[in-house]
Amino acid sequence: MIYTLTFSPALDLCMWADSLEPGLTNRSQKELINVGGKGINVSVVLNELGFKSTALGFVGGFVGDEIERRLKQMNITADFVHLNENSRINVKLMGTKETEINAKGPTIDSKALNLLFEKLNSLNSGDTLIISGSAPEGAIPKVLEAVADRGVLTVVDTSRKNLLDSLKYRPFFIKPNKQEVEELFNVTCGSLEDISKCADKLINMGAENVAVSLGKDGVLFKNKEAEVFVAAPKGEVINTVGSGDSLVAGFVAGYINKKDFEYAIKLGVACGSATAFSPALATAQRINEALDSMD
């Protein structure tokens, strides 16, 4: 079974406007409400790829109720810890420039975390746990420690201290982007060779497989045995929200399906690009179209 863990799921209100003028009344031409949160995005794209998953995390209030309702509509299993505060509503402004306003989200106290750990007790060898997004300080290492001796395949898509603290638990797969690795190591990466050196550092620190996203340019994948660069297919970028999560979903699905890293990262890039070319997360049809265009 695949499990995704999102500490702060959300509803994403996406609005398209020709311009955005601070201090004035702005009007959108189109709106769309999506279920958001990085791990939930992974579950949605996995579903399109034919892989069932259980979405773990924390939700609360009427927003949390709507998140659960929408996941049920998509036939995605949710097993959330319920909080008293409302879950987040994020605003994504699309136009000449993409602007995001992400809400802070509800407080996750120790009692709620303990309820999550009780749910994690059911994970065993053969299961995959995908941890995505931000989290309370120290929470991600505690989750990894809780499943460390059970043979669970762990995927970590987070940043900064959360990412660094996870590496000692030897995650199977991590997916920082170029900006994140530059911040981690206080460097400027002007070439693929520079990116490759940063990936080597992450591998030496504990990561088994590293994919560094280069946005529209593609992805550099590396482990101790191989290095693969996959260029992104060409297309009109409509909405990059969820592209990285789609990449994670594609990689996990591809690896589980064929146990082939090159195929897995190619499918990941196709999924990430298909989402970027869509107003919402990628559908199976758009993923297949992107994959075909890469041949």
Descriptive account of the structure:
The chain is α/β, with parallel strands linked by helices. The chain contains 10 helices and 13 strands. It has one domain: UDP-N-acetylmuramoyl-L-alanine:D-glutamate ligase. The chain is 38% helix and 23% strand. The strands form 3 sheets. The protein has a 6-stranded parallel beta sheet with strand order 5-4-1-8-9-10, with helices on both faces. A hairpin with a 4-residue loop joins strand 12 and strand 13. Helix 1 crosses helix 8 and helix 9 packs across helix 10.
Quick take:
The chain is of the alpha/beta class and 295 residues long.
List descriptors.
four-stranded mixed beta sheet; alpha/beta; 295 residues; 10 helices
Report the major sheet.
6 strands, parallel
Q: Write down the CATH class.
A: Alpha Beta
Number of strands: 13
Radius of gyration over alpha carbons?
A: 18 Å
Secondary-structure-derived class: alpha/beta
Note the overall shape.
globular
The percentage of residues in β strands lies in 15-25%
Q: From N to C, what is the helix and strand string?
A: EEEHEHEEEHEHEHEHHEEEHHH
Q: Helical content, roughly?
A: 25-40%
CATH superfamily (homologous) name: Ribokinase
Could you name the ranges where pLDDT drops below 50 across 5 or more consecutive residues? Answer: none
Straight-line N-to-C gap: 30 Å
